[in-house]
Design a protein that fits this description.
This protein is mainly α. It has one domain. Helix 8 packs parallel to helix 10. The chain starts with a helix and ends in a 5-residue tail after the last helix. 32% of the residues are buried.
Length: 240
């Protein structure tokens, strides 16, 4: 078992170095993006006030692009949009999320070229579990998006390279993002100091309760989905 695991990890690294490097960057870059956003808003707190329709559309288009590239966390975009645009900006935020999911999906598919799935064919059990998860892609995607602690761009990349269908991915992504996004958007509309909220979005008892509830629902749901897929594979007698 240990030898099989080491062989799997060695082959994973050798044949998917560019994919793994991209995933690492998608984890690290949001930290830099967060610092840049805070710095810009600190220097120009009125930057996004009184925008024209064209400027507002440009803002949401840029937000979609930066979220796709992991340059801005989705939490930041929801808070900032709620603070500066109010509820009138909610459709724009949803559209920005959809754009970010679509761009991230295409980027992942072009970078990976199916290499990860091809490699997994050498490991029948892992390949079978992944295939089973694809049949449960609706709950898988929704539960992944529900958690505010799972990075948006990284999970987009992972879901895309394992072969989730594009239309289902986009629809489930937007649906799964709505609960947490609406909450952070609401926080933005109520904020007196957007910079303080961006620095600590989970401040307050209500925020902590909602975040814990979302994370718990996501984790328990994902455990159930993965365990169900694994049990189905084991019942079919698939072995490595």
């Amino acid at each position: 078992m240990f030898t099989q695991l080491m062989n799997f990890l060695r082959e994973l690294f050798q044949k998917n170095f560019s994919t793994l490097l991209t995933m690492g960057l998608l984890l690290a870059v949001p930290l830099l993006g967060s610092a840049i956003v805070l710095g810009v808003l600190y220097e120009s707190p009125t930057l996004l006030q009184h925008l024209s329709l064209g400027q507002s559309l440009l803002y949401f288009a840029v937000a979609g692009l930066t979220m796709a590239l992991a340059l801005t966390p989705t939490t930041f975009v929801a808070i900032i949009s709620g603070y500066y645009f109010g509820w009138m900006g909610l459709p724009g935020m949803v559209a920005a999320y959809a754009l970010a999911a679509a761009l991230g999906y295409e980027l992942a598919r072009r970078l990976d070229h199916g290499k990860l799935r091809t490699m997994l064919h050498h490991f029948p059990k892992a390949d079978a579990v992944l295939a089973e998860l694809q049949t449960q892609s609706w709950p898988l995607i929704i539960l992944t998006r529900l958690s505010p602690v799972l990075p948006f761009a990284l999970m987009t990349f992972v879901l895309a390279i394992v072969g989730v269908l594009r239309r289902r991915f986009l629809a489930a992504s937007v649906l799964g993002m709505l609960p947490r996004s609406l909450f952070f958007y609401w926080l933005g509309t109520k904020a007196q100091d957007v910079l303080a909220l961006l620095r600590d979005p989970d401040e307050g008892a209500l925020s902590k309760l909602v975040l814990v509830g979302l994370v718990a629902a996501s984790l328990f749901g994902l455990y159930w989905v993965f365990n169900r897929a694994l049990q189905k594979v084991l019942r079919r007698g698939v072995t490595d």
